[in-house]
């Protein structure tokens, strides 16, 4: 009897050792393979489809820009993401991704803006069954210059265990009706602890477009951290990016930035969209102090007569009772940008957990004082 017990114990210990080796080896693989993209990487620009008359952006004329987090084309109204309390870690199917991507492209065509600043666009990811969403968008918008900036290229992440989110190569897409002369990827500050594996890499892209007065329109496309260990990470990302924008303004250029801030951009939101008592890192108020002593302003799209949120909590389907609504998507502009209008375009979250936000603006050249 003792020999049988001893044998059983040895088997259990051997199995435990195998589990420890496998889990330990996997964790080592994930952490060793984690590698941040270096800062200031020159990005490839494709201007092939831009018409000759759109080489230079005009000043003192109305221009339009859309910022849209497409949610890797998985977040239809019946989708809930596991990290927000929902059940899904991948899109429902490859066909569902392709269908949703076609609907997103049709929406972009309907909006018909001069510029598009898009985030959460997959190139090759387990969660989207290898569908190249960047290729689909850039081919559909062939009349636009395009730039892709990698946000992250992650190892295979084996969580949740029942349906792992897997590997993902994903990032930001910038589209412009006008020629982009150059583009740069800037690496943002990031969590250095275990949470870096959850929130992965972060960046913003900087695209330069010549203007009719010899300056440049500098477009910033970004997606700030959502699942970091504290709101301070996102604040630090904002400080870096706004300091960069300020330098461009001081150089005489025009600055427009758009993306998912993962911050509450509207102080009025709680009374509209079930926000009382909700405290998450991505629902913290936008830290207005980061704009102090700068020539950069926040544009939080809001219509008092018809307030529409830009984002829903993905803790379940969109019709979940009491589900959080919030505006975390908007724009940053320099003082030489005149904002004519800004609004959230209401899709009722049909294609993403975000609605697109649209701004109409013009470049207003600074009048230099005359010499007497």
Produce a short descriptive summary.
With 372 residues, the chain is α+β, with helices and mostly antiparallel strands. It contains six helices and 16 strands. The strands form three sheets. Strands 1-7-8-9-10-14-11 form a seven-stranded mixed beta sheet, covered by helices on one side. Strands 2-5-6-4-3-16-15 form a seven-stranded mixed beta sheet.
Which structural class fits the helix and strand makeup? Answer: alpha+beta
- How would you describe the shape? elongated
Q: What's the β-strand tally? A: 16
What count of structural domains? 2
Q: Which stretches are low in confidence, meaning pLDDT under 50 for 5 or more residues running?
A: none
Radius of gyration: 23 Å
Q: What integer is the average pLDDT?
A: 86
